[in-house]
Amino acid sequence: MIGFIDIHSHILPGIDDGPKDIEASIELLESGEDEGIKTIVATPHFIRGMYEPKKEDILKKIKLVQKHTSIKILPGAELMIDPNFRKEDYFQYSINFSGKYVLIEFPVTGMFNFLDILKNIQSSGITPILAHIDRYPYLLNNLEILKDIIKAGIITHINGSSLVGNPHFFLKLIDNGFVHFVASDAHGVDWRPFMLKKAYKIVSSDLGMTADTLFYENPYRIINGKKLFINEPIIPRKKGIFRRRR
Ligand SMILES: [Fe+2]
Which domains does the chain have, with CATH numbers? Predict the structure, then answer.
């Protein structure tokens, strides 16, 4: 086993709503080691007026925590959409600070012009990753919009915990090409733990090798700033097919 690469996590102490202190960070990372995670991107929230970590803070906290874990920690951030962000912000807070991919979140409720907002970020010359599409009912109920987002070259991921919670629905979403990788969005051992091992088992037993693409290959390409191979998503002809239980 080559080990999971987790692109979205809140593992650094006292920087956002993740672990409060170094002990809680270490406890969370130990559970990550047990899950089989080998590489993780620390993506603390950047939400204007609430959490505004500086690049140096992120690197400093990574250095502090790295001594206590065998998991390789890379820098990043999760940016809440904000009209005041400039082009430089997307680059400086990119995944692995490599200037190729940036993790973007929206408020989970509400209707937004997802496509235009993401395309606007993309026009800075960076590829947006739309965080946890499993958390936006508006998109899950409007797959045409999600399809257009992916056709525009935007990357999507789902949280492992959502997959474990509703495997039938999310396996369909994966199988129809709407998901490019699975990440944990872990916040703590009790609240939103990693759950990647379970999620991987679910995907591999149903969709075989696709699991490796979603848990290793695509995340590997992202941290190294390489392009992903994307297929056009397929919207099922029968309406509501995602909702039906087996
Ligand atoms: Fe997150």
Answer: 4-223 (3.20.20.140)
